[in-house]
Amino acid sequence: MIKRIMGMFSSDIGIDLGTANTLVFVRDRGIIIREPSVVAVVAGTNRVKEVGLEAKKMLGRTPGNIVAIRPLKSGVIADFEVTEAMLRYFIQKAHHTQRFRRWVRPRVVIAVPSGITEVEKRAVIDSAKHAGANQVFIIEEPMAAAIGVGLPVAEAAGSMIVDIGGGTTEVAVISLGGIVYSRSVRVGGDNMDEAIIKHIKREYNLLIGERTAEEVKITMGSAIASGEETTMEVKGNDQVVGLPRTLTIRSDEVRQALQEPVNEIVEAIRMTLERCLPELSADLVDRGMVMAGGGALLRGLDTLISEKTNLPVHIADDPLSAVAEGTGAVLNAPEFFRDMSESNA
């Protein structure tokens, strides 16, 4: 009875705990938090100075006594204590808006990569509980993304989702409410940024930061050539003379730099299709696949994947919100929540 009463006053929360960004969905309110998965701490301690957007502004710009770090690597927890501090910040920020519900610990659904181990999954659950959650339920990211983009996951027919996040790419074929086959590769938007950094350092002896590389990717990154080539100025540190320098780079060389991570993503999709059962493959010929996650926004990636697989490729209406929207749909669907309760008890 007490648990039932407490549940009436709790605020269920869905979290897309991403390598690059964290999104928080509150039941009946939608997505209320979208912030980078970055924490600034006092050097040598886990004392938090800033979390999220303010912490990201500090990347590469902190004094010696402050360190800005990203506690998740390739979709999994790299720093347990800092991840816990980050989750506590997001949970409390979401819960603080609930007025009379503030004193009740929330139930939390967290989306995680399908390829993580049981140990890594337990680390996520423990971090969330230590951060203030009452109960924690885990949902695999491709399933959350598929639900979030509106795929008919419960039907007896194949649906395919490709979720390209900051640290991982999740590819899954779903039917009858379950994942028939999935593949998780630790390649995503962060690897694209790293590829741009390496290319500019190798070709021009210029070292640029993560934020600059991300800006280059967003502004002029592409998977295939299309239309007029563009140029962009970037600023960094000359590795020969040790002084700041400005460089003009071309969109074609950025595309070349991105070839390796893009090819790995395409290969993961091809391998998933090769493992697909014949009847499900037949469904995909007509339905194709849906792309979600920030990586889906890379220009021409959908066209390249379609050319390599001979299947229709659709980009979700709001690819950045797909996983978070999926966790929200689970919170609002008793049948999903009941199944998760049984599997995560």
Q: Can you walk through the features of this model?
A:
By secondary structure, the chain is an alpha+beta fold. The protein has 2 domains: 164 residues, ATPase, nucleotide binding domain (Nucleotidyltransferase, domain 5); 166 residues, Nucleotidyltransferase, domain 5, CATH 3.30.420. The chain has 13 helices and 18 strands. The strands form 5 sheets. It has a 5-stranded mixed sheet with strand order 3-2-1-9-10, sandwiched between helices. The longest helix is centred in the N-terminal third of the chain and has 17 residues. The chain is flat and about 60 Å long.
Compute the separation of the termini in Å. Answer: 19 Å
Percentage of residues in strands: 25-35%
CATH H level, superfamily name of the largest domain: ATPase, nucleotide binding domain
Q: Estimate percent helicity.
A: 40-55%
CATH C-level category of the largest domain: Alpha Beta
- In CATH terms, what is the architecture of the largest domain? 2-Layer Sandwich
| Cα gyration radius (Å) | 21 Å
Largest sheet, in brief, is:
5 strands, mixed
By secondary-structure content and strand pairing, the structural class works out as: alpha+beta
Mean pLDDT: 88
Uncertain residue ranges: 1-9
